[in-house]
Amino acid sequence: MNEWDYLNNFLIASPNEITELSNMSVWWICQENPDHRYKIQVKERMAYRKRNKRACSICKDLRRKQEHFVRLKM
Where is the Treble clef zinc finger domain (predicted)? Predict the structure, then answer.
């Protein structure tokens, strides 16, 4: 899974441990802008993917509550 944020999901879950229908909220990396990290339920993320819609809340300009996460500098 290219969009899975392994660093921020380290303590939450592994992509091998959850299913497409999971209600668990995990961190994702935006496909269009790798600097964008957003948190969404796995089930909801898969629904966006199947419909070929943008799942990134930052790209969609939605207001979001700031949460702490680790920034990965490359």
Answer: 2-60
